[in-house]
Specification:
alpha+beta; 6-stranded mixed sheet; 24 strands; 33% strand
Length: 435
């Protein structure tokens, strides 16, 4: 499985980008450099993000072969090693493994432990089959730089520090009970996440992004759905938390919650991951983003969920001259209503339009941060969750046309509303010019 250079293109704003499965050389000074799609499966690609004192790499890996599980897993790890070759100080700090069969989790964990040894990243194993039929797919984040410092606090928690900022990654946090009512299990997971953050000298008030994976997310429980019980637990746990205190711009309208994805997976497990951010830098500010064409999720009518889902459509960090924007799980919803039931093509287009509108400079200005914004070409990676296997080809064709060669994971998963056929999330990096 080898990489091929697909050339370069010029973006608006003077950003240059080229696409390569092996990390570009030091002459590349772009903020973001997406990697290529390779032969086999839905491909493998990487994005290199140059943030000055720190370089980040997002890797999306899917095996070309379709042999036994351990063979596919070894192929991924070999590609990962090749992609980071020549950068000995570049370390993978966080990764998510998408599994076709949850029963392969222990075998996968053994292979990863052997490969990484003491450098094992914090890892989440998610029972979401890759849409292309592979036994597994991998999304990994690596960091490197002269000033980067890594601290490990547990198998689930790692901190990354550089240039006066500190990130804490928590992943693979699961409830001790694998079955039973969702509310107590979700409450336990939130408490465990907070405990992991506390080990690292952080806490939930600093969380900027969460991922919640729930088996049978749309199945009935009590008088509603399992997802509704997850929302109830989240609402109760979030009470009294002053998110992003000290970093939110004064006068920011609306409530501030982390960006988030709540998505289904196979089996009955409940697991979670999150990222927290801390700094004392005066040039740092956080802005929560809402789509003017969508009702904020936290303000949904109770008919959608007795306790509304507490998350922002997006959360943006302005730091110096760089802007990082986390895009929450986004679907074909306008105002608060589902659009285009049963039509994967139009739902995919509407979902992408919602993301595009969220990132516009006009929307950032509405939220108190003029001279900021991003486009679909600034995405370092995306995840596309598809409900029905038969919709994959059409959904992927639209995504490739609209997003280009942005590194992408396509996974089969139930979405929080039964009528929704696709959900997309991502993270964008763009230049910011404060005035």
């Amino acid at each position: 499985m080898s990489a091929s250079l697909l050339g370069a293109r010029q973006r608006q704003g003077g950003l240059k980008s080229s696409r390569s499965g092996v990390l570009p050389g030091p002459k590349h000074i772009s903020l973001i450099t997406p990697g290529p799609e390779l032969s086999g499966g839905c491909g493998s690609a990487c994005s290199l993000i140059d943030l000055g004192g720190c370089t980040r790499v997002s890797l999306i890996l899917t095996p070309a072969g379709r042999g036994p599980f351990n063979q596919q897993a070894r192929e991924l790890l070999s590609t990962l090693q090749t992609s980071l070759g020549g950068r000995p100080r570049m370390k993978v700090v966080s990764q998510t493994v998408f599994l076709r069969d949850g029963a392969t989790r222990l075998e996968c964990q053994r292979l990863l432990d052997t490969h990484f040894g003491q450098d094992m990243p914090v890892t989440n194993y998610v029972s979401q089959p890759p849409c292309d039929g592979a036994a597994l797919a991998l999304e990994a984040w690596a960091v490197g730089g002269d000033s980067v410092q890594l601290e490990r606090f547990s198998p689930q928690t790692m901190a990354v520090s550089y240039d006066g900022v500190r990130w804490v990654y928590c992943s693979g946090v699961t409830s001790r009970r694998v079955s039973g009512p969702v509310y107590p299990r979700a409450t336990e997971v939130f408490r465990l996440l907070d405990g992991e953050l506390q080990k690292a000298g952080s806490g939930f008030a600093h969380v900027v992004r969460t991922w919640l994976y729930l088996g049978g997310i749309t199945e009935s429980e009590g008088t509603g759905q399992r997802y509704h019980e997850l929302n109830r637990a989240r609402s109760d746990f979030y009470q009294g938390i002053d998110f992003c205190r000290g970093l939110v711009l004064p006068g920011t309208p609306g409530l501030v919650y982390p960006a988030s994805t709540g998505i289904g997976m196979g089996g009955g497990r409940l697991s979670a991951a999150c990222i927290s951010f801390q700094t004392r830098r005066e040039d740092a500010s956080l802005v929560h983003l809402e789509n003017p064409h969508q009702t904020p999720a936290y303000a949904y009518h109770t008919k959608y969920s007795p306790h509304s889902p507490k998350f922002s459509r997006g959360l943006a960090l302005a730091l110096g001259q760089h802007l990082t924007t986390w895009i929450s799980g986004t679907a074909s919803i306008v105002n608060s209503e589902n659009r285009y039931p049963g039509d994967i093509g139009r739902q995919t287009e509407q979902t992408i339009e919602n993301i595009e509108r969220l990132l516009t400079r006009e929307n950032f200005a509405l939220h108190g941060l003029p001279h900021a914004g991003a486009g679909l070409g600034d995405l370092a990676k995306i995840r596309v969750y598809v409900r029905r296997p038969e919709d994959y080809a059409k959904c992927r064709a639209i995504c490739e046309r609209r997003f280009g060669a942005v590194p992408t994971i396509y996974a089969l998963a139930d979405i929080c509303r039964p009528e929704l056929l696709v959900e997309i999330e991502g993270v964008a990096f763009s230049h910011y010019s404060p005035r």
